[in-house]
Each structure stands twice: as structure tokens, then as C-alpha cells.
Amino acid sequence: MKMVIRPHHIISLGGYIVEWDFPYRNLIVVNPTDEHIKIEVPVFDEEWIEEHRKLGLRITPVRYEDNYLSLWKREKSKLE
């Protein structure tokens, strides 16, 4: 399945991570470009992160011990 991220938009992919042994509980995905970008969901492995960074997306993995809200706010401020 594909999802489109609008230009200068930020989303969270926690509900699209389907593997139990995935090392992150969430992914914050930022599209800083002026173009719409299609991404593949669900997320199955860590290779997904590098593949989508090559498209120009900023991806912040959220580990279990990280504060999700502070990471979201940091990415949101960079985007603005």
C-alpha cells in the first residue's frame, strides 16, 4: 500500500509498524520538499528508513525510551 505525504508536512507511522522485533516504536516522517512523495506502508524492516531517506524525507526513529512528543516538536520546529 502507498501513502502520499504532502509538501512541508509531518506524519507519524507508529500504527504502520507491523514487526514485533522492529527496534523502534514509531517513526516521524517529514517531507521538507516542495513535492508530494509516495511512501510504502506498512514498515517491515530498518531498510525502509534508508530507502525513504533517499527520496528526500527526514525520518526520525523513536525508540522505546525516547520522548515522542519532544522529538515531534523538534521536527515540527525544523519544518517551520
TrEMBL record:
TM helices/strands, residue ranges: none
Source domain of life is Archaea
Gene3D superfamilies cross-referenced by the UniProt entry? Immunoglobulins
Q: Which residues form the signal peptide?
A: none
Pfam families the record matches: Ehbp
Which InterPro entries does this entry report, sorted A to Z?
Beta-gal/glucu_dom_sf (IPR036156), Energy-convert_hydgase-B_suP (IPR019597), Ig-like_fold (IPR013783)
What is this protein called in UniProt?
Answer: Energy-converting hydrogenase B subunit EhbP
Native species of this protein?
Methanothermobacter tenebrarum
